[in-house]
Amino acid sequence: MTNIEALKYHQELQLRAGRDAYKCTCHFLRVGDEFPIPHGSGVFVKIKNVHFLFTAAHVVENLQSDIFIGTEKDIVVRMGGTWTMNTLETGQKREDDKLDIAILRLDDESILYANQFYGFIDDSEIGYNHVTKPLPFYTGVGFPSTKSKLNKYKRSIVSRPLIFNTKPCEEELYAKLDCDKGINLLVGYDKQNLIDTTTNNKIVGPDPFGMSGGGLWFVDAQLTGSTQKVAKKLVGILTEWPSKNRKVWISSKIDVFMITLYTRYPELR
Q: What's the domain range around 199?
């Protein structure tokens, strides 16, 4: 197998993995005075048969009663349960928070409803203690606000995901962006040179506002049959497209989500 063929093969694996990740990725909508407003993304996760929704704290903070997920073109539903978020230090603002994690433990009614439209990843797809590889083996999945179309006459909204392949950023960017390698994972997002995952052509990507709360996935090299599931790991939750550097996506490592879960719910350990 030549290098070009190997690269193409892996890109096809990432596309399949991204499509599978999309099935467990929801679009958060904030209900305005009249119509839903695209607001963020989230990932459905099941740990030891307990069901959760992971997202970024800034997506849902102070909006727990006003934020919904889309299930059909003309239906939005508020997920019920118990929220856990990282607390801010005195004087700290959420926009300066590099941890930025929120977890909803879903109640029984929400679990039944979510299962009709979404999948839940389980423990086997959580990328604990992930060691980054300087390769384009990473895939981000979420819902940019600019890719959502609202039809006011039909009172419906069509949410289109963005699935983009990327690789980790250089180590020196962590200090420049006030990030910590222990809690953050930085990857590239150059909207002027984005690759369309379906055609492999270079395109201009959208402003990714609304991707916050979506998943960052690692797809390692593997040989997988066309009917087999591609192995992927959730290694982070996207949290910020920093104004200091618009070619970077900041994510919070999945480890900090799991540490938070184990602290709040010791029975999950």
A: 3-268
- Contact assessment for residue 77 and residue 113, using Cβ atoms and an 8 Å cutoff: yes
Alpha carbons 268 and 158: distance in angstroms, whole number: 36
Q: By the 8 A CB rule, do 59 and 43 touch?
A: no
Reported as a single tens digit per residue, the pLDDT across 139-190 is 999 999 988 776 666 566 778 899 999 999 999 999 999 999 999 999 999 9
Domain count, the chain: 1
Q: Which pLDDT score is estimated for 254?
A: 98
What residues have CB less than 8 Å from 258, skipping those under 6 apart? 47, 126, 128
Of 195, 202, 186, 205, the closest CA to residue 244 belongs to 186
Nearest to 217, CA basis, from 261, 267, 179, 161:
161
Q: On the CB side of 15, how many CA atoms lie within 13 Å of its CA?
A: 13
Res. 43: pLDDT tops 70: yes
Asked if residue 47 lies in contact with residue 259, where contact means CB atoms within 8 angstroms, the answer is: no
Spell out the alpha helix ranges (H) of the chain: 3-22, 57-60, 108-114, 172-176, 254-264
Q: In this structure, what CATH number is given to the domain that contains residue 133?
A: 2.40.10.120
> Position 15: which residue type?
L
Cα–Cα distance measured from residue 241 to residue 100, given in angstroms and rounded to the nearest whole number: 13
